[in-house]
Design a protein that fits this description.
Radius of gyration: 17 Å
CATH architecture: 3-Layer(aba) Sandwich
Oligomer: single chain
Order of helices and strands: EEEEEEEHEHHEEHEH
Strand content: 25-35%
Strand order of the largest sheet: 3-6-7-11-10-8-9
């Protein structure tokens, strides 16, 4: 596969930064893999063999593999990005805006078991681009704090968090940026009807001018996440 981004070419995060900061001192795994971005379609989504997330919880270490590749796909002119840890959405939003996929100021529709609205330790510069955005995504942001910086920079006019049976029936007539975390289908979210979730996400895809999809290894078994992506898009 040909790598299509000058920065996302596959690398290890070896310092206690970003996602690698979680429980760093307690863990035996000290580095996390970030997969390269390649162009393809969802049929190329595969579980990788390298650890992308590690955390100490309830007295034990959990080290999880993610995707073999991050996938960039264009369907009917709409860019889709598929990746594992959710903070990568930040860079892919930036990449999409720079390529004209959407203008700043749209609503971000965040479909997720979690809000991911924590504040980062440091805020980005207003004129940051390219390498600085990439470094900020991977070395400052983590899976729980990547939305607030985008709001502060004006990338979005606001965020609509879909995380409950009340919000699942929200409809959108204007263009949106759709951000989907596959942990929306985790067992904790089974109180929302499965077929209703599939149907609503398909509706929101119809209003989206950019789509980011995280498979979230710490919260979702990756083969199931990939299978669900196919169910939604088929």
């Amino acid at each position: 596969m040909n790598m299509i981004d000058v920065y996302y070419r596959g690398f290890y995060l070896e310092q206690p930064l970003g996602n690698n900061l979680f429980s760093y001192k307690r863990r035996s795994v000290k580095r996390l893999w970030v997969a390269p971005l390649v162009e393809g379609d969802p049929s190329r989504l595969n579980r990788g063999s390298r650890i992308v997330f590690s955390e100490w919880e309830e007295g034990r270490e959990y080290s999880l593999t993610g995707l073999e590749y991050f996938i960039y796909w264009k369907r009917n002119g709409i860019p889709f990005y598929f990746f594992d840890n959710h903070n990568h959405a930040y860079y892919f939003w930036y990449r999409s805006m720079k390529r004209g996929a959407f203008p700043p100021g749209l609503t971000l529709v965040h479909v997720d078991q979690h809000s991911d609205m924590r504040c980062p330790e440091h805020w980005p510069g207003k004129t940051d681009g390219g390498r600085k955005v990439f470094d900020y995504t991977n070395r400052v942001l983590n899976v729980g704090n990547f939305i607030q910086p985008a709001l502060r920079l004006g990338w979005f006019s606001g965020v609509d968090i879909i995380d409950s049976s009340q919000k699942i029936n929200t409809r959108y007539k204007r263009p949106i940026v759709l951000d989907l975390d596959m942990d929306f289908f985790a067992p904790e979210m089974d109180y929302i009807d499965h077929e209703l979730k599939i149907a609503r996400i398909r509706e929101w895809l119809g209003a989206a001018c950019c789509v980011t999809v995280a498979t979230s290894p710490f919260f979702m078994e990756q083969d199931r996440a990939i299978a669900l992506i196919h169910d939604i898009l088929d």
